[in-house]
Design a protein that fits this description.
alpha/beta; EC 6.2.1.1; disordered N terminus; metal-binding; binds ligand 6R9; 30 strands; 8-stranded mixed sheet; about 675 residues; globular
Amino acid sequence: MSQHDATTTPQAPEADLENLLHETRAFPPSPEFAAQANATPEMYERAAADRVGFWAEQARELLTWSKDFTETLDFSGAPVARWFADGELNAAYNAVDRHVEEGRGDRVAIHFEGEPGDTRTLTYADLKEQTSRAANALSELGVRTGDRVAIYLPMIPEAVVAMLACARIGAPHSVVFGGFSAEALHSRINDADARVVITADGGYRRGKPSALKPAVDEALEKGTPVKHVLVVERTGQDVPWTEGRDVRWADALAAASPEHTPVAVEAEHPLFILYTSGTTGKPKGILHTTGGYLAQCAFTHRYVFDLKPETDVYWCTADIGWVTGHSYVTYGPLVNGASQVIYEGTPDTPDKDRWWEIVEKYKVSILYTAPTAIRTCMKWGKEYPERHDLSSLRVLGSVGEPINPEAWMWYRETIGAGKTPVVDTWWQTETGAIMISPLPGVTAAKPGSAQTPLPGIAADVLNEAAEPVPNGGGGYLVLTEPWPSMLRGIWGDPQRFQDTYWSRFEGMYFAGDGAKKDEDGDIWLLGRVDDVMNVSGHRLSTTEIESALVSHPIVAEAAVVGAKDDTTGQAVVAFVILRSDAVERADETGEGADVVAELRNHVAKEIGPIAKPRSILVVAELPKTRSGKIMRRLLKDIAEGRQAGDVTTLADSSVMDQISRGMQR
Ligand code: 6R9
């Protein structure tokens, strides 16, 4: 069946997944970029010839080991892998001290931009001093190698310092996103049995100080094993204080020695626990260890972003409360000796050009952000980026969810002046580092596709019967070989680790994402498997319908869910945000109902009548987690006429009230 037919006639289930392949554009690297790129086509060959040996080379080249390893991979205890297990190293030594020892102490590690406009510059030498003092302060509070420390901070340099201070003493950190509730903090502290919490009085958000410390007090009142709370002063606001338990960060650091020897730990020593967000039930504490995690973070950061540490200014907009902040703010960039921007606040404070102002000011050359942010910027309009000189940008990255081709193109055209490579990077909290992505300078990039497993990574797409699908087919994404930065388990719950990831397909890691292979064998991510709908026996991807909606000129953002339907099994329900100019027009002319009809027909035209949404609700906002993921589970509750479930992980829980009211109207 040709793709043209697919838009007008009902389709066989497999063919439904074809529709993303309307997209046929490809952007090969320019000869100039390719000539200077870190990545080469030979890397794929080298890794294919000796995958494990390839990782051993990377681990030795990119990291400094206090004791070299003799064995690279031991998977005899599968599904728990051991990488570089008899080697020893320290993560903070690799991220900080060695740069100072090797004469890079004056290089800027962090250009910090506070939301109110205050700035700070930390060199690698500054970071060494700060992390040493903080490590000594933590030891003073009784933290020993192996103890867990909870970190609950805004996006300020102390967040990175706190993580690295823990790493210096081999105390695994558990970062809890600063926007999470006291309840979420409480359960995470207890699950990890943390003895110390590092927090701040507050941080700046949307032009105002926003308090953090009261949530810590509330969490601790519910009962935890925490003995001490270290409090960074950021906003200077009044906060409740418990004498004997609470300690001022500035005082503790001032009293501590600036000398500290990082503790060399075994490669498999736990580096951190990070709880996954947005799922129902008890959060999963994803466990990462030291050597393999660092090796893959450093490798991917260097090759996927083409990092030149002497000249690039790198900026990843993720918060450290999210895995992207761990791997691509704290560990990857610092291990590679990069200079990076950290920005505290929201992209529209004081105005919608704040990000672009920052890019211009620091001459950011590599930008890594999420599709939701890109679509938000699209919605605001190109006049904001156009106010600024963005010519320093040379690589753009995307992470967190499938990026629809329209957003990809806008990113490249409007932010990247139509010439920067765009890397769509697929990975998860569980994978620790990027797994599937184009390599700039090597790959001819396709808008909307993460394309190729990185050198040393083995992925496939399987059907229900666990057979690899042929090119053109769709199914489930699996990782078929262990990789260095893979999770080593779920904290305290080995059975859940086995059940969640290793039971669906024998001997393979099940990622929970749907994917398809195009005619070239490139991988297109289709969203979580639980987001795949079944309408009248036809498989439809939420992503695909969202992409179709967003391709209409009046739509800024869309979320689609499958709602139970007596006739068709499931029905498509869409929630859309219109572009501001379209909203004004609809208000003036009262053509709201026409908009919905037009969009339903548009989807029918783009994908086929089967995909036509049963209902479309125009909304002002969508419910999102703090890491920017749309919480379709909540929209599904609304679409199926239920009270929305747990909203505690939403960035703004009032959004759901607005949407429910809209539904009742
Ligand atoms: C890094 C991160 C993981 C889930 C993952 C997938 C989605 C992430 C993606 C993507 C399509 C990409 N996801 N990157 N989907 N294309 N480039 O986001 O980790 O928060 O654990 O989320 O995010 O569904 O399974 P995490």
